[in-house]
Amino acid sequence: MSINNPQPNKKVPPSVDLLTNDEIYMLRCIEIAKYGLGSTAPNPMVGAVIVHNGKIIGEGFTSAFGGNHAEVNAIHSVSDKSLLKDATIYVTLEPCSHFGKTPPCADLIIQMGIPKVVIGLKDPHEKVAGNGIKKLKNAGCIVKVGILEQECKDHHARFLTNCNKKRPYIILKWAETIDGYIAPDTLLRGDKKEPFWITNTRSRQLVHKWRSEEPGILVGTNTVMADNPQLNVRNWTGKNPLRIVLDRELKIPSTYHIFNGKQQTLICTQVVDSKQYNSNARYKIVDFEANLAQQLCKILYEENIQSIIIEGGLHTLQSFIDANIWDEARIFKGTNRFGTGLSAPRIKGYITQHSQILNDQLTVLHNDQEHYI
């Protein structure tokens, strides 16, 4: 693992003592918004707080996709609605102004007579893009925008990447030995079709938590052939991600877990003969010789997949790294040694987290140094 500038000039959270009241309430918005992680996509996971005379009287975060937005939940949580006419609502992202699966949040704020709206970040989505702010101002609301803007950008990184870059937010993940290998020589594995664990059980449980937080998980043919993974969240509570598997020549046997029908599977292949397709999967045609990472991003964007976690193998991970199409890398380092085997991917990034999980080390990199930590 090669890391560029291992200790860049990092943005660090300001001391609470130095924060304004607006910033303190916005931090609370960000905090509660995280309760929506893994359930709101493709909607952003927004947090909202309502304050009256210096006291929080209502809070809400975005419900699972199709449900209420954060502002609606916050307003509904206020027991005495008469207080709203002298209150301030704080929200991490500009309130929506259009009809989707739910009515516009800006309309409800106006209807309830909330006179002041404090917003962390303007919504870049083409259906909002300042229209919510405009509607609120036209109705006579006092609107303040840009409170803890960078922190709100980092919180909404998945949504913003999807809107601005027209691709999923991409998280790379792998585990490597202390001497830098992700797999032993095939001779050491024989015909064993189950994972050769590098990390401890606590780290593996954390990976299942991560899977529950992203709508998609992507792996290559070699990973499936070697490990026959289930790619689910059996060691955590949450929704199983869409399994996205690269199988250029449809080598993976139909008896493998990815075809068990227990969760959705999308196979990316170059085989156009539908007679070879498995009924427990969907298929997309990909040109494996041309800009594979870009093609996959386009497919997943069209599939409305806001974020993915890529778990291997080496060629798949390295193809995204080499194309510079990635946002986070989460790298475990175990304590065992292989001596020889398949080397870990080569990556350059900015360290934003170091932590220890029992005897494993976890390093988190970001592809830019603006990330808030």
UniProtKB/TrEMBL annotation:
It holds the Pfam family RibD_C. It catalyses: 2,5-diamino-6-hydroxy-4-(5-phosphoribosylamino)-pyrimidine + H2O + H(+) = 5-amino-6-(5-phospho-D-ribosylamino)uracil + NH4(+); 5-amino-6-(5-phospho-D-ribitylamino)uracil + NADP(+) = 5-amino-6-(5-phospho-D-ribosylamino)uracil + NADPH + H(+). InterPro entries: APOBEC/CMP_deaminase_Zn-bd, CMP_dCMP_dom, Cytidine_deaminase-like, DHFR-like_dom_sf, Eubact_RibD, RibDG_C, Riboflavin_Biosynth_HTPR. Its EC number is 3.5.4.26, 1.1.1.193. Its cofactor is Zn(2+). Keywords: Hydrolase, Metal-binding, Multifunctional enzyme, NADP, Oxidoreductase, Riboflavin biosynthesis, Zinc. Pathway: Cofactor biosynthesis; riboflavin biosynthesis; 5-amino-6-(D-ribitylamino)uracil from GTP: step 3/4; Cofactor biosynthesis; riboflavin biosynthesis; 5-amino-6-(D-ribitylamino)uracil from GTP: step 2/4. Binds 1 zinc ion. GO terms for molecular function: 5-amino-6-(5-phosphoribosylamino)uracil reductase activity; diaminohydroxyphosphoribosylaminopyrimidine deaminase activity. Coiled coil: none annotated. CDD domains: Riboflavin_deaminase-reductase. Residues 20-144 form the CMP/dCMP-type deaminase domain. It comes from the Bacteria. Converts 2,5-diamino-6-(ribosylamino)-4(3h)-pyrimidinone 5'-phosphate into 5-amino-6-(ribosylamino)-2,4(1h,3h)-pyrimidinedione 5'-phosphate. In the C-terminal section; belongs to the HTP reductase family. In the N-terminal section; belongs to the cytidine and deoxycytidylate deaminase family. This is Riboflavin biosynthesis protein RibD.
